Amino acid sequence: MEASPEYTEWGGQLVLVRRRPPPPPGLGEALKAGLRRSCACSLQGTWAQLQALFPAVHWLRQYRPREALVGDVMSGLVIGIILVPQAIAYSLLAGLQPIYSLYTSFFANLIYFLMGTSRHVSVGIFSLLCLMVGQVVDRELLLAGFDPAQDGLEPGANRSSLNGSAAALVLGVQDCARDCYAIRVATALTLVAGLYQVLMGILGLGFVSAYLSQPLLDGFAMGASVTILTSQLRHLLGVQVPRHQGPGLVVSTWLSLLRSAGQANLCDVLTSAVCLAVLLAAKELSDRFRHRLRVPLPAELLVIVVATIVSHLGQFHERFGSSVAGDIPTGFMAPRVPDAGLMWRVALDAASLALVGSAFSISLAEMFARSHGYAVRANQELLAVGCCNVLPAFFHCFATSAALAKSLVKTATGCHTQLSSVVSAAVVLMVLLVLAPLFRDLQRSVLACVIVISLRGALRKVRDVPRLWRLSPADALVWVATAATCVLVSTEAGLLAGVLFSLLSLAGRTRHPRTALLARAGGSSFYGDPAEFEGLAPEPGVQVFRFTGPLYYANKDFFLQSLYSLTGLDVGYAVARRKERGPGEGAGEGDPVGGRDPGSGSGVASLVPAVTHFHAVVIDCAPLLFLDVAGLATLQELHRDYGALGISLLLACCNPSVTDTLRRGGFLGEDQGDVAEDGQLFPSVHCAVQAARARHQELAAANSIL
After folding, report:
1. CA-CA 20 to 30 A from 309: which of 31, 44, 69, 539?
2. A Pfam family for this UniProt protein (predicted)?
3. What is the mean pLDDT of residues 215-234?
């Protein structure tokens, strides 16, 4: 194929001639070529696949310690310290002992460090997934004859397991107690959910992230932040409220908090007030002088260290009943294969768990990537999060995903890369092996303060709603619907509602796109909308119709109605009337627009002139992104009906996708060089108008001779 374009003379002007592409390969040849590419093995290809599967292999070689190391270490330390008290709180939601949460945090951080594409997302235990795991664990414990309400931290049968190493928690199969059976259920559930996520990544289902628009992500961040804030209020106040699940979690929690406000712990309230004031002041100062600070202020780390020392010296837990982290057992357990029988029983529950975890992880990865100016790969995120569930399931871990609160803390403390996850894993490892007693007196209210302060950025997004409404009411509706559903129903329902509203918004915009009859600017080749430009004159005898949207099943009726209304001729109705009157009759006087009877009283019907004042219709297909089967059938019907009335239908500026659809649908000839195609497709509106006028003049000359 030649590199230079080909031209031909037509009407004294140069006209583009389409190239002939090579014939498409057959199905057998395509399959052979695909197998050959997939089975080809080379050192360069293997290295590329390794870098794609483990992105850390690529970015570690470009790591700049002088610029990023301090921030990564600081954020890793803060997240690692936050994980310790969170392990106690979130493991109770899952009906498991705290050591299993530490195992989960340790392995998830290491695996995501190797496989994740997001630089700022923190993958580990997440309250929503803990609740979902806890529901399944409670159900299976009840079916097995255990009491789901029994807590491993309370005095009872399992109390002795906390006094030694973690290995003492594992009992024999014949003597499996509540905690033993609970973790078996959780690991089986986690393994199946991870397999689902890995399969989704292999099948390339990460494209769902493309439907997560910026208003959706902002609304989701706002709604999820309110949910997280609500979950931390009980720690800020030091009150005991029931564990709420399912829809309306935020509302139910607030009602419980209002009923229990009188029982607030004064020590926790004062500690929360002091910590919030210090952290907020430190954040404001850090934001104001961020250009002068080479290293972000480690406010969270300093507050946690000081608060732990003060709580220990003041004996806040013993004297005032303040809730603290408590004792955490040390050591590792031997790996164990999840129970296959339990895997079958929880397969359906694992599907919803996998979908929620995937949606959270991809949406958060997209959100942080967008705000920090880099790209993530959705399919690789699915693989990474799936492996964070599959592999740790053999080491007594339960389901993980990206967590918004810890990700915001991670970003706020200066994180640059996932090297911070290794630091966090090292902190958790030190706690597992040595440092557990040091965090015994850390108040949970201090942790809640750190999380609440980290939500400032997401909560401030509510100020963007008025500006978003002025720019696009549809996007503002997506924002509000996502945030409101997150708060009033649940976070996973909010994400689903956001996707649905985004799709409905997109469908609404393509359902009624803008239409216009174009006119010509003087003697030039420019055709525009007279409502947009002045000084345009319609081309005599030719109607140039523009439809600024795709033509598909949902808007084909609007396409026809707009065309009939603007041109003043309902060609379908005119052809039907002509058949009734006989072949010698044309478009009758009083033919209605849109195929409606004038007496229908619908308000849409209107009378049109009897005489057809044009001989050709040119459709400007430049804004026509794609055609589906219904759109193709609509054009075919128009071509047939206009042809029956002696009116030419020409298409201009069709993109290759539309041209290919027209060709495969039989609207054009099978070969690009066919006369039928050359007579119907034109590279510009001006070429189509000239061709229509020349064709009409030839027919008029022939008729005059006859």
Report:
1. 69
2. STAS
3. 81
